[in-house]
């Protein structure tokens, strides 16, 4: 699209003679570095009113891959409702392309270029995890681990669920210690992610990026994500 200019850390958006800047979240590596056939939406941070957020989606085309460019200073409380809105808009489009994906744009500092995180199938839940369990009594939760990201220094992992001896982790050790905790688990395990709504989008993307490095036999990461307050 001719009105988009990508830089290493900033995205400049030109519209109606006005320049706006999105500070893209930074990651240290990305598995996806190139996407074709795209259109873009933007979530802007307002420096004069930190509690406000502006969505520009005028150039989205339902049959293309979508790049969602979100300012890293926004919180999940601000961002997630807009992401859900865009997901529903694409899903309900009468001109839907089943092969088109949705991606979050990031700045890959290792390559000094753009990187992307796919979130096409992610389901963001408004209800609490306990409410979700109550409403889905047919699901076997015995083989699931839940990771709560409260802050960079407060990460809690429960396996089995509701075990009072939950692992207390931080950003630097949580991948290593989760691998240790699950290393001898013979049965398939699904990891469910839960994020504090007050985390910045930068923090959220950092956690998601680290999880892309996670590889352990019989362990998968759920598409269900919970945003808690």
From TrEMBL:
Spell out the protein name for this chain. Lipoprotein
**Lineage of source species:** Bacteria, Pseudomonadati, Bacteroidota, Flavobacteriia, Flavobacteriales
